[in-house]
Amino acid sequence: MKRMSQRRGIFIIGDSPIFGRALRLSLEAHGRTPIRDATYETLVLTPAVFAETALFVIELWRKYPTGLRAEGLAVAEELRRCGTAALVVSSLSLGNGIYGAWYWDIASPDSMAERCQSLLRAHWQENMESDFAALKKLLGAYMGKPSGHGEENAPD
């Protein structure tokens, strides 16, 4: 597994282009790290993206026509399995330190830019799964796929 310090960039993934733009502008004001963004809908993760990305910053929520899903947790878990770090960013206010380094919201004790810089300076940590355990329990109702999600529910 590559250490995060061997990779440089940040890749923001959100439900809308506005999320990516807002976070990118905020992060660009605090550092020189290369930053890219995409929406869940347009996302293409190639080997080159993985090779150059030190940290994925992922929006917790994704809206589907048939429901809301905690997509960020599912994507972060998949990225962790691929050996890549992911910070889940939320519009909730639960981040008083009990959910670990890999989750951030407006109640977190640091700014999002500070959290990203801290994660970029750190080496890869295997505790993402345990950090997300409480969130998965809390948001379990939003972890399942809403009807209409994926090919298995596509109309004929």
Structure characterization notes:
A 5-stranded parallel beta sheet has the order 2-1-3-6-7, with helices on both faces. Helices cover 32% and strands 20% of the residues. The chain is of the alpha/beta class and 156 residues long. The protein contains 5 helices and 7 strands. Helix 3 runs antiparallel to helix 5.
Which features would summarize this protein structure in a list?
single chain; 156 residues; alpha/beta; five-stranded parallel beta sheet; 32% helix; disordered C terminus
Distance between the termini: 42 Å
Query: For the residues shown, what is the average pLDDT?
Result: 82
| Biggest sheet architecture | 5 strands, parallel
- Any low-confidence stretches, pLDDT <50, length ≥5? 1-5, 151-156
* Class per helix and strand makeup: alpha/beta
Please write out the topology.
Elements: E1 9-14, H1 17-28, E2 35-39, H2 47-52, E3 53-59, E4 62-64, E5 67-69, H3 71-81, E6 85-89, E7 103-104, H4 112-121, H5 128-138
Parallel strand pairs: 1-2, 1-3, 3-6, 6-7
Antiparallel strand pairs: 4-5
Helix pairs in contact: 3-5
Provide a short characterization of the protein structure.
The chain is α/β, with parallel strands linked by helices. It has five helices and seven strands.
